[in-house]
Fold:
Amino acid sequence: MRVVVEHLDKTYHDRRGRDVVALRQVDFAVEAREFVAVLGPSGCGKSTLLGIIAGLLPATSGRVYFEGEPRPGRAPVTATVFQEFALFPWRTVRANVELGLEELGVAGREREERTRRYLDMTGLAGFEGKYPHQLSGGMRQRVGIARALAVEPAVLLLDEPFSALDAQTRTLMMDELLGIWERTRQTILYVTHNIQEAVFMADRVIVLSRRPGEVLEAVPIELPRPRRESQQGDPVFVQTADRIWGLIKSQAQAALLDDQTVTEAEG
Amino acid sequence: MAVERLVVADRTAFLRRPDYRTVRVLALLGVVVLWELVTRTGWVSSLFLPAPSGVLAEGLDMARSGQLLVHLVTSLERLAWGFGVGAVTGVGVGVAVGFFALADAVVQPIIAATFPIPKIALLPLLILWLGIGEASKVAVVALGVFFPMAINTYAGVRQADPLLIRAAVSFGAGRWSVIRKVVLPSALPMIFAGLKLGAGTALLLLVAAEQIAADAGIGFLILQSGNLMETTRLMVGIVVLSLLGVASYWAIGALERAVIRWRHT
Structure:
C-alpha cells in the first residue's frame, strides 16, 4: 500500500506550557513496496512522525492516509517495530509473536503456523519458550520484528529498531532485515538517525530538519539490489552519505549544543 | 634498585553478606532453649510463662481431643472468606480506579476518607448491620484486606509501562485487551505485595473480632484461656497464630513464584 503524509503539523506543550513545534508541513509519500528511510538529527520529530502514521499519536493538523487494493478481512495496515523492543516481559517469545494474531482473531492451527513461519524467518527457532529477559538485545529485536511481520501488515513501520544494539549486531540485523524484505516486499518506513543505515537499506531517504521537523529533501539511493555490505565502499554510497551529512551537519551540531534535546519528550 | 610489588586485594570483602544458614536455625532454637531453661529452673513461674515443652504437649493434647481443630477450622473459614472477598474486590476496584479516569475521580476521595479508619472500630457497626454471626467477622476481615489490595493494585496499574500499552494498542488491542494483557500482568508484583500486607491485617482483625464477639476460633481460645488463667492453652493459641502467619506468608510467596515466572531471578 501507498502511504501519503499530507501537510502534517504536530505541536505539543512542554512542561512549562510553551508550544513546541515538532513537525511542520510534512509532506511525502511512500510508494507500495518501497523501502523509505526517514532520517534526521535527534529532536527532529521523526519518532513523532512514525507514531502519527501508526495511529498512536494524534496529529495537530494535516492527515495521513493509505491507498491501495482493499485488504482482506481484518488484516492491519501497519505494524510497528519499536526502538526499545517493547516486548511483553510476561510473555514467552512465542506468546509475544502471537499477540497481534490474538487481537486479529487468528486462532488455532493458522495462528500456530503463522507464528512458526515468522519465528523461523527471523531466526528464533529454538527460542520460543524463552522470556525476553533471557535474550540478548539482538534476539529481542528479532522478536519485535517477528511480532510485526506476523500480522502481515501492508506497511511495516520501524522506529530506530537497531539503535539500542551494539555495532556488530546492528550490521547483522540490517542484513537480515534486508533479506526478509527482499522476500516479503512490504512497504517499509524506517526511521533512523544513522546515515549509513539509511543509505545502505533504503530506496529513498527523506531527510528531516531539526525542530521544527520539515522535509529538507528526499534523496534517491541509486544502489543496485540486493544490497551487500561491500557496497558501503562504493563511490555512489560514499557520495550519497556525504551529501546527506552535508544537509544535516549544521543541524546536528546545533542539536549537540542545545540542552533542550536532552529533556525533550520525543514520542 | 628495590622493586615494590603491590598485589591487588578485594577491598569489598566487608560488603559481602553470607547466608549463615545454620545461624538462622540456631537463633530460633536458642530462644526456645532459653525459654525452656528459664521456666524449668523455676526462675519464672509457669503460671505466667509455661515451658515450650508444656505448650507443645498441651497443643498435641488439644489436637488429639479435636478442640484445637474446631477453633482452627472456624478461624480459617472466616479468614478464607474475608481474605477472598477483600482481595477480589480490592483488585477489581484498584484496576478500575487505576485505569479509568472517571472511576478514579469517584472512588479516590472515598478511599482517602475511609482508609484511615481503624477497621476494628467498625465491628460494632458491622454487628448491628450483619448480626453477631459469621458475616460481621468476615466483613471486618474483608474490609481490612480490601484497602491494601485496592491501593497496591492501583499503584501497580499506574506503573504499567506506557510503551507496552502503546505497543499492545499498535497490534490492535482495545481497552479490555490492554487491561487483561498489559495492565494486570504489570500490576501483579504489586498485587502480591498487597496480598502479603493483607494477610497480616487479616490475621490481626480476625483475632480482634473473635475476642469481641465469638464462641469459637483462635482469638476466642486465647481470650477464654486468659480469663481462666490457663496460660498453657493461651500460649498454644499464640503459637498457632504465629504458625498461621508464617504459613500464609510462605503460601503467598509460593503462589507468587508460580504466577510470576518471568522475573529475573
In short: The CA atoms of residues 40 and 100 of chain A lie 30 Å apart. Residues 72-81+89-153 of chain A form one domain.
